[in-house]
From TrEMBL, chain A:
Protein name: Cu-processing system permease protein
Gene Ontology molecular function, alphabetical: ABC-type transporter activity
Transmembrane residue ranges: 12-33, 45-67, 88-115, 121-142, 154-176, 226-245
Matching Pfam families: ABC2_membrane_2 (PF12679)
Gene Ontology CC: plasma membrane
Keywords: Membrane, Transmembrane, Transmembrane helix
The organism's taxonomic lineage, starting at the top: Bacteria, Pseudomonadati, Bacteroidota, Cytophagia, Cytophagales
TrEMBL record, chain B:
Species name: Dyadobacter psychrophilus
Domain (ABC transporter) ranges: 2-228
Record's keyword annotation contains DNA damage: no
GO MF annotation: an example: ATP hydrolysis activity
UniProt protein name: Cu-processing system ATP-binding protein
Pfam families referenced in this protein's UniProt entry, alphabetically: ABC_tran
PANTHER family: ABC TRANSPORTER ATP-BINDING PROTEIN ALBC-RELATED
Top-level taxon: Bacteria
Keywords assigned by UniProt, alphabetized: ATP-binding, Nucleotide-binding, Transport
InterPro entries listed in its UniProt record: AAA+_ATPase, ABC_transporter-like_ATP-bd, ABC_Transporter_VariousFunc, P-loop_NTPase
SMART domains tied to this protein: AAA
């Protein structure tokens, strides 16, 4: 399995889209930090761009890659290999190369300009988001046979996580604004890995003071070490659940 | 060596295979023939474990293949349309397969790599190759590990005449080594002196399994293509007769 992963990573890292993604991240993060002289402000501007681009590229690239590898996966299945290890190798290949691209593009710049706990958390969130959306993409592509439909679903999923979900949350907030829903808001943020990352990083920067009472509740929850561990566990769940469902599906799939 | 017992498979509402049973032994070269959509590829895919049958069992060397994967180390498979990761070079693809099969270098069969001239193209990326060259790579991979069973799905599709002749000769050599070869092909004329048996499929059912000799005798035709054409015509006629019978019985009622 290790050997298979090695070849898959070498293949992905040489693809033009991956190189372009790395360069774009590099240009964006460099320019953001050169415009802002305050690293905290730089992080804030970079945060929104990263939370937008990283999930988008991860989910769409992974979906397309899996569909394009259809015949290749068939060939691998005809070899003396377990289906599970083929599928997990594909996932590991995608996750490692997306994380590497993120690290090379944005990670190094963050470490250079904003060497702090906040920077480290942002780096972690970027890497975790890459892996989460690769896992979600694998689930989408194993469930849907048709390539066009699969890519459409991937785009819709991204739209849901990065925009529609926030609208829903805002709607709920206004509807139930008379009730004490601060704790519920924490639970709600668990339902979206992008929001969870945003909350984690925003709380590190002083802007959380502007978020009112909810901000204070968030601060007391995520600011603590236990809160951080729980947040990490939630992110891991976001990787593990789609990945294991897709592996089970792939094990019984007709190619 | 490979035997199928009562294999049925349904994709959604569409029945692809209905109660297919046959067995094939070492030293045989079997042609799987039938019109498009008759279930040939599905049979091959079930033998390789890519499609999981709804019912029935497939055994390889007497052992059921369900939930097993090691048996495939003795099968060389050449797909109908091989597509490989675009940015891998031919050399990497070959290297990866060697890593997967874990067969010592001196036991590898690299005849086809040489005769197709693949060893001059090792640095080329798979994405830049023509369909024919990719097909050659697939053929090399199928023969490289000296597997006891060779399964080929439309092997000559996309190959130029010279290369398909090379492939044909290679298949003949392997057949002499008393290996099992299963081929599906639409180009019946090139199967003539290659195969020993014919399995004819139609609408997901196996119509017959006959040795080439018996088929020639039954139809009175020397050429495989003509013999099969005759079988198909007979099939159509008997279908027509049945329909006519149904129609008349309906009229009577």
């Amino acid at each position: 399995m290790k050997k298979l992963v090695k070849y898959i990573i070498a293949d992905i890292l040489r693809s033009r889209i991956m190189i372009a993604y790395t360069v774009v991240l590099l240009v964006i993060s460099f320019s953001v930090f050169s415009i802002e002289d305050n690293p905290a402000k730089g992080i804030l501007s970079l945060l929104n761009i990263i939370l937008f681009i990283v999930p988008l590229v991860s989910i769409i690239f992974s979906t397309i890659y899996i569909y394009n590898s259809n015949e290749f996966i068939e060939l691998l299945v005809s070899q003396p290999l377990q289906r599970k290890s083929i599928w997990l190798s594909m996932f590991t290949g995608l996750a490692v190369s997306l994380s590497l691209a993120f690290f090379a593009g944005a990670g190094i710049v963050i470490l250079l300009y904003a060497w702090s706990m906040t920077g480290a958390i942002m780096l972690g969130c970027g890497v975790l988001l890459s892996i989460v959306f690769a896992a979600i993409a694998m689930l989408a592509s194993v469930k849907i046979r048709d390539k066009a439909k699969g890519i459409g679903t991937a785009i819709l999923l991204w739209l849901y996580f990065s925009m529609l979900f926030d609208t829903l949350v805002l709607f709920l907030l206004f509807q139930f604004s008379d009730y004490p829903i601060e704790k519920g808001m924490i639970a709600l943020s668990f339902l979206n890995p992008i929001d969870l990352s945003r909350v984690l990083i925003l709380l590190r920067i002083d802007v959380s003071a502007m978020m009112g009472y909810t901000g204070a509740v968030f601060q007391s929850f995520f600011g603590s070490e236990v809160g951080m561990v729980i947040a990490l566990a939630i992110m891991m769940t976001w990787i593990a659940v789609p990945l294991s469902i897709s592996t089970i599906r792939f094990n019984n799939k007709d190619l | 060596m490979i035997s199928l017992q009562n294999i049925s498979k349904q994709f959604g509402r569409f029945k692809v295979l209905t109660d297919v049973s046959f067995s094939c032994n070492k030293g045989e070269c079997i042609a799987l023939i039938g019109p498009n959509g008759s279930g040939k590829t599905t049979i091959i895919k079930s033998i390789l474990g890519m499609v999981i049958p709804d019912s029935g069992t497939i055994t390889f060397r007497g052992k059921s293949i369900a939930n097993d994967y090691n048996y495939r180390s003795d099968i060389g498979y050449m797909p109908q349309m091989g597509r490989y990761p675009e940015n891998m070079s031919i050399g990497q693809v070959l290297g990866m397969m060697k890593d997967i099969r874990k067969i010592p270098e001196n036991l590898l069969d690299e005849d086809l790599i040489k005769s197709f001239g693949i060893n001059k193209l090792l640095d080329k990326r798979m994405g830049t190759l023509s369909g024919g060259t990719r097909q050659k790579v697939s053929a090399c991979l199928a023969f490289m590990f000296g597997s006891q069973a060779l399964i080929m799905d439309e092997p000559s599709a996309g190959l130029d005449p010279v290369s398909s002749e090379i492939l044909r000769e290679k298949i003949l050599i392997e057949k002499e080594k008393s290996k099992l070869v299963i081929i599906t092909s639409h180009v019946l004329s090139e199967l003539d002196d290659l195969i020993t048996e014919v399995i004819y499929m139609q609408d997901g059912r196996m119509l017959f399994q006959k040795s080439l000799h018996a088929l020639r005798k039954d139809t009175g035709e020397e050429k495989l293509s003509r013999a099969i054409a005759r079988v198909m015509r007979q099939q159509d006629e008997s279908d027509g007769l049945q329909e006519a019978r149904v129609n008349t019985s309906e009229l009577r009622n």
